[in-house]
């Protein structure tokens, strides 16, 4: 049977060419022609039907705003990232490096959902049913009633979704699925975009929640067109080193919850287990305080976490090095200039190395004060007090700016037994007698030199 003809559409101007060309004949842009299926001549069968259900014209203020019903997955950390659980008709895209645990986590979640009474379906295009069963045995999911379909044809997958009507379906992975309407190979830009559009429309029309597993490029971005991330409701990234037992699931986009929320998992013999206290991962266990170490409280979504910032200042050569791991290198150079100008601490001829312990990446400026205090501690060779932590943004004029949600950061540190804090004055709690801050001594500062003076006055 002959396949349908395809055309090549320019991604810049939308021009159509019957064959692939290096340069678009319409707008003369290079390498912009992408294979696509031609528009159907039958008006009743339109591939590009609306993904959302049609509704009458309405006034925004008259529309009832109701929260979406959530389906808990049975894994608290995964529910935290999703915003409370799966949503009916939602489409979730999860990506990560090979072997990091995407299929393992989703198989565990499907088993928990099935045991709670949900109708589940696991579509695998990379493994056979026997391989999925072997993985389930290794994870201790004996007697699991999750239905498995080993198929890569889009039309057969859609027919199965229509006939079985599952509540939650996992497609592992979207790069292996192909549509017979296109001649290109599975995993190509045209196939990924076409298959994702069909599956998204099926989810919105039937109410089934679909989870798409996506491959990533060597740079760590999701492979395929960027439109794939715009099309779905939630985008999750699986992060972590394959040599480490800890994994982070981060929400990059979420129409039903907070973005930049993270879930922390530990890889065990029985699969991925949620970590309820992730601060323990990022704190070193020192018997006694050591120079160059300062703890700060960072925010990942709505979750405050304690992270240890370590600095090493050593004598350098004619061109000293400035190296940071987990922190912005340019911001480190700026902070060293502020330290010299406003606090009188010079590191011009010193090598400065800064590291965020545990492999975490800190992008918020609230780490500035902790970085400066750890650098001065290493330079003087004197440790900071036991149970000490600090946070706050440092400006070029030497002022210490407040960090968002400062009271939640202080409560988290107090809960974990920390006793001394240096924070911006604007983050000083109004009610210091509250039980949430019991046993915590808070020093509020407005400028960098004040913070340095407070630390010098404290017993090293």
Write the layout of secondary structure elements.
Blueprint lengths: L6 E4 L5 E2 L15 E4 L33 E2 L4 H7 L3 E2 L3 E6 L5 H14 L4 E5 L4 H10 L8 E4 L3 H11 L3 E5 L16 H18 L2 E6 L12 H5 L2 E6 L6 E9 L7 E7 L2 E4 L18 E8 L2 E13 L6 E4 L3 H15 L6 E7 L11 H13 L7 E3 L2 E2 L5 E2 L4 H10 L4 E5 L16 E5 L2 H10 L3
Parallel strand pairs: 6-10, 6-11, 7-8, 7-9, 9-10, 17-18, 19-22, 22-23
Antiparallel strand pairs: 1-2, 1-3, 4-5, 11-12, 12-13, 13-14, 15-16, 16-18, 20-21
Helix pairs in contact: 4-5
Question: Can you put this structure into words, describing what you see?
Answer:
The chain has helices spanning 76-82, 102-115, 129-138, 154-164, 189-206, 227-231, 329-343, 368-380, 406-415, 448-457; strands spanning 7-10, 16-17, 33-36, 70-71, 86-87, 91-96, 120-124, 147-150, 168-172, 209-214, 234-239, 246-254, 262-268, 271-274, 293-300, 303-315, 322-325, 350-356, 388-390, 393-394, 400-401, 420-424, 441-445. The chain is α/β, with parallel strands linked by helices. The chain folds into three domains: 1-37; 69-276, 3-Layer(aba) Sandwich (Rossmann fold); 281-458, 2-Layer Sandwich (Ribosomal Protein S5, domain 2). It has a nine-stranded mixed β-sheet. The chain has a four-stranded mixed β-sheet with strand order 15-16-18-17. A three-stranded antiparallel β-sheet has the order 2-1-3.
């Amino acid at each position: 049977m002959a396949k349908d003809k395809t055309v090549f559409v320019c991604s810049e101007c939308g021009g159509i060419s019957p064959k692939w060309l290096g340069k678009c004949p319409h707008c003369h842009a290079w390498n912009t022609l992408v294979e696509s299926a031609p528009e159907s001549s039958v008006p009743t069968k339109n591939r590009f039907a609306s993904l959302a259900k049609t509704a009458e014209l309405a006034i925004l203020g008259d529309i009832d705003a109701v929260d979406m019903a959530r389906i808990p997955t049975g894994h608290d950390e995964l529910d935290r990232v999703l915003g409370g659980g799966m949503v009916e008709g939602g489409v979730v895209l999860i990506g990560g490096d090979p072997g990091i645990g995407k299929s393992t986590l989703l198989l565990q979640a499907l088993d928990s959902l099935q045991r709670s009474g949900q109708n589940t379906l696991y579509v695998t295009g990379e493994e056979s049913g026997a391989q999925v069963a072997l993985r389930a045995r290794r994870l201790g999911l004996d007697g699991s009633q999750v239905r498995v379909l080993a198929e890569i044809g889009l039309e057969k997958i859609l027919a199965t979704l229509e006939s079985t009507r599952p509540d939650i379906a996992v497609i592992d992975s979207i790069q292996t699925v192909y549509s017979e309407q296109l001649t290109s190979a599975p995993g190509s830009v045209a196939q990924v975009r076409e298959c994702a559009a069909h599956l998204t429309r099926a989810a919105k029309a039937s109410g089934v929640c679909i989870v798409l597993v996506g491959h990533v490029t060597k740079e760590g971005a999701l492979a395929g067109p960027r439109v794939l991330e715009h099309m779905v409701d939630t985008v999750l990234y699986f992060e972590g080193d394959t040599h480490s037992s800890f994994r982070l699931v981060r929400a990059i986009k979420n129409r039903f919850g907070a973005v930049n929320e993270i879930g922390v998992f530990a890889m065990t013999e029985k699969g991925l287990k949620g970590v309820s206290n992730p601060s323990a991962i990022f704190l070193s266990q020192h018997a006694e305080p050591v120079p160059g170490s300062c703890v700060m409280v960072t925010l990942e979504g709505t979750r405050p976490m304690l992270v240890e910032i370590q600095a090493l200042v050593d004598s350098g050569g004619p061109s000293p090095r400035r190296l940071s791991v987990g922190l912005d290198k340019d911001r480190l150079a700026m902070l060293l200039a502020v330290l010299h100008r406003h606090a009188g601490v010079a590191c011009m001829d010193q090598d400065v190395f800064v590291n965020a312990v545990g492999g975490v990446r800190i992008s918020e400026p609230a780490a500035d004060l902790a970085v400066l205090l750890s650098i001065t501690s290493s330079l003087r060779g004197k440790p900071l007090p036991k149970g000490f932590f600090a946070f706050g943004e440092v400006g070029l004029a030497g002022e210490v700016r407040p960090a968002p949600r400062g009271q939640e950061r202080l409560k988290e540190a107090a809960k974990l037994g920390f006793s001394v804090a240096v924070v911006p004055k604007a983050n000083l709690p109004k009610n210091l007698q509250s039980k949430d801050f019991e046993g915590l001594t808070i020093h509020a500062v407005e400028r960098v030199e004040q913070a340095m003076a407070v630390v010098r006055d404290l017993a090293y």
